[in-house]
């Protein structure tokens, strides 16, 4: 999460699927909860030859601090 957002937002969900990130973003928008989706490289789940392709990019979804409890209750 960027420095600016780390002060004003909390990460509520992380996924490796862009489709899942989009679905969560839409769900939050339907409930009137603003969110920020940040895409970044991930070094998790490495094999002997490197990172598994499906785990190369992670999507973090963060919401403003005041919406965290509401957003967390909506998500699995």
Question: What do these coordinates show?
Answer:
By secondary structure, this protein is α+β, with helices and mostly antiparallel strands. It has three helices and five strands. It has helices spanning 3-8, 18-30, 68-74, and strands spanning 9-15, 36-41, 46-47, 50-51, 57-64. The strands form two sheets. Strands 1-5-2 form a three-stranded antiparallel β-sheet. It has a two-stranded antiparallel ribbon with strand order 3-4. The longest helix has 13 residues, at 18-30. The radius of gyration is 13 Å and the shape is globular.
What is the overall shape?
A: globular
Uncertain segments are none
Give the H and E element order.
Answer: HEHEEEEH
Largest sheet: number of strands, sense, barrel closure? 3 strands, antiparallel
Strand order of the biggest β-sheet: 1-5-2
Distance between the termini: 21 Å
Which value, in Å, is the CA radius of gyration? 13 Å
| Overall pLDDT score | 86
Given the helix and strand composition, which structural class is it? alpha+beta
Bin the helical content.
Answer: 25-40%
Query: What is the beta-strand fraction?
Result: 25-35%
Q: What is the count of β-strands?
A: 5
H/I helix tally:
3
Characterize this entry briefly:
By secondary structure, this protein is α+β, with helices and mostly antiparallel strands.
Question: Can you give keywords for this protein?
Answer:
single chain; 3-stranded antiparallel sheet; 3 helices; 34% helix; 33% strand; globular
Lay out the secondary structure.
Blueprint: H1 3-8, E1 9-15, H2 18-30, E2 36-41, E3 46-47, E4 50-51, E5 57-64, H3 68-74
Antiparallel strand pairs: 1-5, 2-5, 3-4
């Amino acid at each position: 999460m960027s420095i600016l957002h780390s002060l004003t937002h909390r990460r509520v969900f992380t996924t490796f699927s862009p489709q899942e990130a989009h679905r969560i973003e839409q769900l939050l928008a339907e409930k009137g909860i603003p969110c920020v989706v940040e895409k970044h490289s991930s070094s998790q789940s490495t094999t002997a030859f490197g990172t598994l392709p499906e785990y190369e990019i992670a999507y973090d979804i963060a919401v403003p601090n005041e919406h965290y409890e509401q957003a967390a209750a909506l998500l699995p």
